[in-house]
Amino acid sequence: MALVNEHFLKLPNNYLFADIAKKVNAFKTMHPKSDIISLGIGDVTQPLCPAVVEAIHHAADEMATQATFRGYGPEQGYDFLREAILKNDFLPRGIHLDINEIFINDGAKSDTGNIQELVRWDNSIGVTDPIYPVYIDSNVMIGRAGVVENGRWSNVLYMPCTAENGFIPQIPNKRVDIIYLCYPNNPTGTVLPKEELKKWVNYALKNDAIIFYDAAYEAYIQDDSIPHSIYEIRGARKCAIEFHSYSKTAGFTGVRCGYTVVPKDITASTLTGERIPLNHLWYRRQCTKFNGTSYLSQRAAQAIYTQEGKEQVKETISYYMRNAHKMKETLTKLGLEVYGGENAPYLWVKTPNGEGSWRFFEQMLYDAHVVCTPGVGFGPSGEGYIRLTAFGQQEKTDEALLRIENWLK
Amino acid sequence: MALVNEHFLKLPNNYLFADIAKKVNAFKTMHPKSDIISLGIGDVTQPLCPAVVEAIHHAADEMATQATFRGYGPEQGYDFLREAILKNDFLPRGIHLDINEIFINDGAKSDTGNIQELVRWDNSIGVTDPIYPVYIDSNVMIGRAGVVENGRWSNVLYMPCTAENGFIPQIPNKRVDIIYLCYPNNPTGTVLPKEELKKWVNYALKNDAIIFYDAAYEAYIQDDSIPHSIYEIRGARKCAIEFHSYSKTAGFTGVRCGYTVVPKDITASTLTGERIPLNHLWYRRQCTKFNGTSYLSQRAAQAIYTQEGKEQVKETISYYMRNAHKMKETLTKLGLEVYGGENAPYLWVKTPNGEGSWRFFEQMLYDAHVVCTPGVGFGPSGEGYIRLTAFGQQEKTDEALLRIENWLK
């Protein structure tokens, strides 16, 4: 008799963004003429830049004739893209990686979800709280998260990030095997200074732990002192796997491409103490369960690294960051406590008078016709906050701010 | 201390196609001027058809302007493609599926590898032997395959398919929880008549087993009596999940798109006997660990279902099937026992005089400069066979046949 993987049944039935959509639809049904602006879901709105579009056209033409047609590519991605990554994303920061340490993927969600396959099912995990739900859910599905006790998973250590500690997670005073960090952070939009990131690398090295480092938003960093990659920290090659995505960097949410760095120095232990390099294990995992990212998407990604591509991508990021700055300025003037939004496309806003996240979400929806994301949806420490994103069109974002202003006055 | 998933270490260190590449490279080093033709790896050689190329250009242009730009798509795929699938791949065969039973993927390898996440880690599995390695390896990685004993996995039931039983796997006389079937078959190129497939569905219904049915090569079926989908069999909706791929149908090995059918009627049991629908579980899995297939690839796939797309794809399939027929005819005339190649792009050839697969592979490489795939690489029952593919260019395939003829004479 085929038995179901019962760990799946432990997952909460509600899904944050589905719940939001449901509430928004209910509002629309009651107010069919209302014009809602969403500053909620983190999808981009600006088109692909011309260099990327041109590269896709060119790749399509290559696929149209036998001489230049491309079938299966390498599971780990084409060298043309892996070389561009080494040369542009790492060498300028003094990070020397081998081409075989780069694995092209179809977006960071797949790899941040799949990476946990490499470690034992009962390894403990530590997460900053609030957190991107995939990190925990992918561990729940294999039984690693344990069971829910008082709204928290028994095998997960939650490291609160709130205004009280300046959104700096505290180094655990006990051993955790696997740590998820995401900086610039989703959902809080805050960053980790180099000296703080160093503490994590040192903790991991000392405790033989592994850091899964999600750098999906690094392109939004404006402050030169903030690390773009964990490999800027000495020793990180021995303890960290890093995830990158072109989704937010270059509007690839529909194109699907990113990459994962698995250094050759990072190992995990067997029960008998043998050290196993994870680079080879990830390669094996990808060769077995993945057949490479679309050639079209890889050529599209390569175009981001050309001179014109770089300039065009930078322009779009500036477009979104103008939103972020204006949002932060306006909301702060209105007396709200606003975090993030300086080196990230996300703003994390404290609800006034200690109101609950969902209650504030509903008020903003009904009174200002603006959609946000309730912070508590990202974890218990998100209660009393909401997330706003800077990915909207400028005119709509401005209009949303006007509405919020009129509502809160 | 982070502990490694030790199940990964049970995987054989050698990978079939890597081993072949190594041997071919050794030959090339010794004979730098030789011109080798590969009838080995199953990649296509013909370019994308014009309708598909046009669709990619159009999609690229849509992504270039804000009004038509597409960001995140639904994890389960766009309705425009799911509707085309229902209308073209299933309705004409009298199969009525709901749109939410179709999940667009980035190729069948990902989904045939990931689908096992839905069932308990200790469910037993049954596979036809020889077999596409992903089915077993993805189960090894999570510990479900057990341990190797005499070259076989302890929790895997092998169902031999050889010339002796006409390549018809025998229904097991014991209970197996999960069964992998692939028809038209990779690697043997043989098919399963409707009455045989019926036996499997009945077995699964009777034993509360689940069939993972890989239909990646269904577009190559020439004989109208052979089922294209397991859902042509009554009751299959309750026990089978089916995988489709555009890789071989339309040369999408580099574009990456396919789909998986998870009917709403299929359930698996909890330990307490509760029935859990797998459709919802797969949706949850995909929403957590996948962010949808590239918009470009989905539009490319949609074009296959237009009138011109259908005709163009059919032409390419005929091109390959001409190869298959010629290969079968020539090799048979040479006195070889040849199977498959009539409803599939693969030919399965018995080595003469009971020679070993690898020995025959090396002879063909050194004496005819033609590369094949040793059958034993697909499982113990593949010993004494080799696989040839019909995906070559016609001129090269003809030349390879000439060489084999001269060599064997």
UniProtKB/TrEMBL annotation, chains A, B:
Positions with a binding annotation for substrate: 15, 42, 109, 132, 186, 291, 387
Keyword Metal-binding tagged: no
Gene3D superfamilies assigned: Aspartate Aminotransferase, domain 1 (3.90.1150.10), Type I PLP-dependent aspartate aminotransferase-like (Major domain) (3.40.640.10)
One Pfam family it belongs to: Aminotran_1_2
EC number(s) stated in the UniProt entry for this protein: 2.6.1.83
Domain of life where this protein originates: Bacteria
GO molecular function: L,L-diaminopimelate aminotransferase activity
Cofactor: pyridoxal 5'-phosphate
Transmembrane annotation, as ranges: none
Residues the record lists as binding pyridoxal 5'-phosphate: 72, 108-109, 132, 186, 217, 245-247, 256, 291
Keywords for the protein's UniProt record, in alphabetical order: Aminotransferase, Pyridoxal phosphate, Transferase
CDD domains: AAT_like
Catalysed transformations (reactions): (2S,6S)-2,6-diaminopimelate + 2-oxoglutarate = (S)-2,3,4,5-tetrahydrodipicolinate + L-glutamate + H2O + H(+)
List of residues that carry N6-(pyridoxal phosphate)lysine: 248
Residue span(s) of domain Aminotransferase class I/classII large: 35-404
Pathway(s) it belongs to: Amino-acid biosynthesis; L-lysine biosynthesis via DAP pathway; LL-2,6-diaminopimelate from (S)-tetrahydrodipicolinate (aminotransferase route): step 1/1
Protein family according to the UniProt entry: Belongs to the class-I pyridoxal-phosphate-dependent aminotransferase family. LL-diaminopimelate aminotransferase subfamily.
Listed NCBIfam families: DAPAT_plant
Function: Involved in the synthesis of meso-diaminopimelate (m-DAP or DL-DAP), required for both lysine and peptidoglycan biosynthesis. Catalyzes the direct conversion of tetrahydrodipicolinate to LL-diaminopimelate.
Subunit structure: Homodimer.
Protein name: LL-diaminopimelate aminotransferase
Organism in which the protein naturally occurs: Xylanibacter brevis
